[in-house]
Amino acid sequence: QINNENCWQPIMKFINDQYEAYLQEEININRKKRIPDSRVHCCIYFIPPTGHCLRPLDVEFMSRLSKVVNIVPVIAKADTLTLEERDSFKQTIREELRANGIDVYPQKEFDEDAEDRMINEKIREMIPFAVVGSDQEYQVNGRRLLGRKTKWGTIEVENIAHCEFAYLRDLLIRTHMQNIKDITSSIHYEMYRVRRLNENNTAVAHANGVPEHHLAVHEM
Fold first, then answer.
1. Domain 9-130+176-219 has CATH 2.40.50.100
2. Whole-structure pTM value
3. Residue 152 — pLDDT band, cuts 50, 70, 90?
């Protein structure tokens, strides 16, 4: 029996450690003109293809992670599901995410205008992306393609008729990459930065004997 208690903590710690490293560079008196950015801008969360519902572990994990990083959920090994099972599973996952208040990327509250909303709504209707992965190449109709060979034929990783990997790739590195980074900077990292600076101010105030109520008034 695997003990999954608090299994999200190492990942949360890694994400926060990258924010901390960036913050220390940012507040450095002799900071570099271009701060090395190791912040985690997106987390791809793989959901097992059970075809039923999210596990309690998935709900807890994504609930915690979504507060510190952009999350894009995907169904792994989607070729193990029929098309009907896949569509039903995707719908169930979307409903469970809403019911549990888990805000995955692209978040509605950050749509900038009507055009953004229209584009992102189409993406939200596809989430979670049903993907198939492979590092094997096969010859298909005279072309070498990444895929998985089965006795019924070859599942092509980048063929949108076979899976949604191409949509995921386009979202992450073609159409929305800068937006993902912007949300990290202006929302997730900014929340971390404000919290850490407030902690430092509180620690300094206590060291100097400033009463708690004076500090609270000052911070307001």
1. no
2. 0.87
3. confident
